[in-house]
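Its record is set out here:
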Amino acid sequence: MTSPVCGLLCLVLVLSEALGSFPHHRKVPSARPRASDLSPQVAPRLQRRQDPSSLQQRPREAQQGPRNFQQQQPTRNHLILQQQQQQQQQRGSDSAAPRHHCRNRPIDLVFIIDSSRSVRPVEFEKAKEFLQDMVDSLQIGHDATRVGLVNYASTVQIEFALKTFFDKSALKQALARVEPLASGTMTGMAIRTAMEEAFTTKAGARVGSANIAKVAIVVTDGRPQDKVEEVSAAARASGIEIYAVGVDRADMMSLRMMASRPYEEHVFYVETYGVIEKLTSKFRETLCGLDVCGLGHKCQHTCVNSGDSYYCQCHRGYKLNPDRKTCSRVDSCAQGHDCQHVCVPHGDSYLCECHRGFVLNADRKSCARLRPCAQGHECQHICVDSDDSYTCRCHEGYALTADQRTCSRSAACSRGHDCQHICVENGNSHICTCHEGFALNADQKTCSRSTACNPGHGCQHVCVRSGNSHLCACHDGHALNADQKTCSRSATCDQGNNCQHICVDDGHSHICMCHDGYVLNADQGTCSRADPCALGHECQHICIDTDDSYICRCRAGYVLNPDDKTCSRHGSDRSDVTGSSGPNACARGHNCQHRCVSSGHSYACQCRAGYVLNPDEKTCSRRKLPASMDLVLSQGSEIHAAIVHVSFPVSFSGLDVCAQGNNTCQHICISDGDSFKCKCRVGFVLNADQKSCSQELRSELTQDPCMCEAQILFQKKVQSAIQELIAKHIKLSDKVTLIESQQQY
């Protein structure tokens, strides 16, 4: 009995040694998922190596899917051993070769890593080394595997997206630069961020491809502080396969809530971050799978890996035969074409043909109908193609006869015309005429009402037709009289002028004039104030313009003599102080605003014209100036002349009642001592109330009643201009007074 027992033990040891190369992971009890637990949107799960004893023959797939050829292929144990032997041989022949060759299919992989305060810095570095080792075993690239990273604690941060790195070395360097965040473990929020932001087309996920799986690997060492069950279920339902890796204090129930099923293939646990690198080989087996096609196949065209087996595909234009290995050419037209009419197979391609009565166009796809007229017709004049037949037409001036082929000449007007009123036959053509009272326009088609007036219209200047009647109008510079026929010359000034002050009619034109104290500028329209000093003065030293007059000033070191014209040197002798008749009080200094008049040993203040002395006997105020106007309007040979005179009171020795505004004169107020009397402007007469005025009726005005209104309008314009001048005069006087005061003090 000893010998059989020893032999049996030796056999067990040999088998154990043979099987010792397969990694064993910690099993998490779970039940297989029901069919209802798997979402139809989930991409085919990545293959994971299993123990040889667990390999079972897979059931035959549906007829439209690839056939399982495991019955013709070696067992999985042999495949794994064969690949390991090939790797060992390669390692023996080339010491520089990597220890593992991963031929994984392209996937979109997102790491979701916990960096809360419970993860110490040294442990976080171990976690990053684990991620770098996993990346090192994958094929990274734009068309291979893409990797993204979501870092989370109490907040969530996408460190880089799936589209950020397509180079393995750059990706590993980015992983090494990741820093931990803070306290908190919001795992559910991190999974939601990955689902809604990381696994999107904008972030680089290949959502439209069914052959590229979406994989998320969650690494955490604690219990989530938010709910993970619902958000994880939503992520799995969206097609994301979730792997959960727990370290140290990780909650196993939470890991199972997050992970996809079966749990024994998607939930992993290690005691510390120091041994997390042990999971690298497990994920390498899960993500890489076997290259069954690389070990040999019997496909005529293309071999496609499918888990532990493979299936065959054919090139374009071929179909897979019933043996599921060889391929036969298919009908190229049946595969789809863009021929408009008929598709004819031709080798690996096809040709297009057209139906009868059509020809193939230059694009060799579409067809065009043959022209029936080009094939022959019986039309006398014009043949027009119409579907499969044709119709006949005639030239202009002809009509189609009953046989629908021949043509005969037709009346020009009956064939259609564009005359607005009347069409008249004229040989083979026609001419247009108009109704009575209308004239033919230049286009020889349309008509317009005649504008010529009937003889005897009576208009002096211009006759304008208006419907069935007419109206009279006048030339420029004339106005229509009351008889609505004759015209009279209108005042040119009333028609508009550019005179600043006064406009005077002058035949067919007008001339501009200025008010007293002003001169006409070179533009013959505007006026400028005349310079009194430039017109001549009697000042010994300096002449200063002031309103309509001037005042004299002396140069520095001189004083003005009592004559207000000559100057004497200051301090040269006593004549500047005493003069010839006594001391000069003004020369010693005064506070008069305008003028100082010496009076013995004292002085008195006086104001300039237009001002009155205030009660302080020093300052002056402007006297209210009545805008008195004398307007003389006369008519003679259609020339209107206006003479405007503005008068201001000159003497201010007494009280000017009119200047105080205590009068009710309509036109002109004239002071008379302590009272006043009223006067009317030329052309008006004083009424019985001795205040208001009425228009004087003149015999020469009865010839043209409209002239009265023109005179009134002209008077108003002149009055407005004078009032504007008075306002400007007051402003200018104020400025002169200010300048004099500054020079005096």
In short: The chain has a mean pLDDT of 76.
